[in-house]
Amino acid sequence: xxxxxxxxxxxxxxxxxxxxxxxxxxxxxxxxxxxxxxxxxxxxxxxxxxxxxxxxxxxxxxxxxxxxxxxxxxxxxxxxxxxxxxxxxxxxxxxxxxxxxxxxxxxxxxxxxxxxxxxxxxxxxxxxxxxxxxxxxxxxxxxxxxxxxxxxxxxxxxxxxxxxxxxxxxxxxxxxxxxxxxxxxxxxxxxxxxxxxxxxxxxxxxxxxxxxxxxxxxxxxxxxxxxxxxxxxxxxxxxxxxxxxxxxxxxxxxxxxxxxxxxxxxxxxxxxxxxxxxxxxxxxxx
Length: 286
What we know:
Blueprint: E1 7-13, H1 15-19, H2 22-28, H3 40-55, E2 60-63, E3 81-84, E4 87-90, H4 101-112, E5 116-119, E6 131-135, E7 138-143, H5 149-158, E8 165-170, E9 187-191, E10 194-197, H6 204-212, E11 216-219, H7 222-225, E12 233-236, E13 239-243, H8 247-255, E14 259-263, H9 266-270, E15 281-284
């Protein structure tokens, strides 16, 4: 397993169907802690363009089903599951308003023929943005406000036989429990030996472990962390997509040999604080 592809398929959830209408956006965004209300029409256009970028790398499955029981946050499809060599693990969301997302995603997986390996049960909490593969048998999970110790222990049991090392990364308080902060807010592996990181919020032992695993680290500058410079999705090894507005990180990636594609994300990323890794659930080749 890896988090840098190439992928058999990439799953996304339609912005037009998830946001549904400007009226729905206007009624939900404050309670969900979006920074501002997305513009519905612009969000739909931006997401369609984003999907077009992804289709240059792999087939894309767009979830178009009605958003019954889901919120605007459901556009960030990665958080509801983790994908392993033997199937998907359904998460249990740390954000209460997102509790119905894993069950909704399970139906899509059934249609795609993706087996369900298991599910995180109470009192466990686990969100997909807190998990990343660092190699075929090495993974990392963030312990923070969205993923707790009970969820991590259930994950460890479900991954038995699939990993030789599960690195538990204590996440900082940063802006508190109401903020969206995942492990993948500060690290995005984009090849077997290259990762984009924001070191100021990274525990020293984890940063040292990345270096020991052979990763070269592309450091995100302070002024590009808030614009999701560390949130980079690898469509294939060193072929990445990132949100517009992070020219220093883009240049550093290109110097490291990466091919970088930019997308406009003012409505689908910036206002909901979810970058391209959040918007995608890639499925591996088998």
